[in-house]
Amino acid sequence: MTRPLWGIAILVFVPSMFYAASWRNNKVDQQGNFTENFSSSGLKLYVSSPKVRFARNEEITFRASLVNEGAYPITLYLHENPLKNFTFIARDDDGRSLNVKEEMYFQGAMSAKNDYRDPHFTRFTGETYPMRKMILHVGEKYEKQIRLSDYVDWNAFPAETKTLLITANFYPNPIQAQRYFLTSATSLKLLYDQSREVLPEKGKVSDVTTEPLAVSAREIVYLMLSAEYTKNWSQYFKYLSLKDIIRDYPEYSRLYAQNSHEEQTHALAEFRKYLSGRGSHKLIRFRVLSGEAREGASSAEVRVRARRNVEGFERDYLTTYYLTKRASLWQITGVESRLAD
Predict the structure, then answer these.
(1) Which of 263, 262, 110 is nearest to 253 (CA)?
(2) pLDDT digits (tens, 9 = 90+) for 157-176
(3) Which residue in 22, 175, 292, 311 has a CA-CA distance of 20 to 30 Å to 284?
(4) Are strands 163-170 and 86-91 parallel, antiparallel or unpaired?
């Protein structure tokens, strides 16, 4: 008598097992339009921002991200009016929150030419059902850029407020399931500095084309010393006029003062070797003194504080470089150096 009963039991349970397996492998949300428990199904809401400090004349913007961290796809219904899907709460240090805008007052980026609707909205059934259905699969993310002034009453912003704590609620199905919402898993603390303004950047083409491109005398000195530090001598000698600088080195200037062209050429060659191979004056670090540079129409002076290794001892020098403009570029034509205080 037990065998027939056992066979019946097998016939009863096998179809349900196949049904469960097919349900788990399905690629759509089987919970229906009235999905209630979005938290346990794996849907998470996060608020984040790469910028946490805003000036008085800046728009406070951040990101709201919906992530499916569960095991099954989830269906979301995005309304053409984002205020029906998202509610953002901005509190100050005392816990007072800014007034949330009513749905009917949402304007967004509306103008004479732009529609205020969410950029992801698609009209399927017109005004009678103004929502878009979106299935968020496992591991997928829906991200939206938020401008806080679109969601809260910015005109009532108190002048003494300095910090804002932002949290969010998301309504996955705002028309069919108005009472179900998801609270953000993270909060965002922003600093609103009302004492500071950000100056607008120059955007006119004339701002960059009216002034000719030029390299300043300070930049030439910096490039020359950088080439010396890296021992890039081919670049180093591009910024020097050896025939002029040699006069500031008495040992080589006497040789160069000879009338013979061969002796002058030999003196310049020896001077070049001295500058490129002076291990006893190795450059350790340097700093171009910006406040002590003078630049005229054809001549300039630039002062540098540098530390050099001289015969095993580190010493600080104050060096003045004299530059002359030749063919629209500055060239170093003189050097004066002394020990720094």
Answers:
(1) 263
(2) 666 667 889 999 999 888 88
(3) 292
(4) antiparallel
- List beta partners, residue 188: 166
Query: Which CATH class name applies to 28-193?
Result: mainly beta
| Residue 132, beta-bridge partner list | 78
Residues 176/33, Cβ–Cβ less than 8 Å: yes
Determine the Cα–Cα distance for residues 248 and 196; give it in Å rounded to an integer: 51
Domain residue spans of the chain: 28-193, 217-339
pTM over 0.85: no
How far is the C-alpha of 223 from the C-alpha of 129, rounded, in Å?
66
Fold category of 217-339 in CATH: Nuclear Transport Factor 2; Chain: A, (3.10.450)
Angle at 147 between CA 143 and CA 152, to 5 degrees: 120
Residue 311 in tokens: 């015969």
**One-letter amino acid identity for 208?**
V
Residues 102-137 pLDDT 10s: 755 555 444 434 444 444 444 444 444 567 788 888
CA 219, CA 302: separation in Å to the nearest integer? 10
Return the beta strands (E) in 138-267 as ranges: 141-147, 163-170, 182-183, 188-193
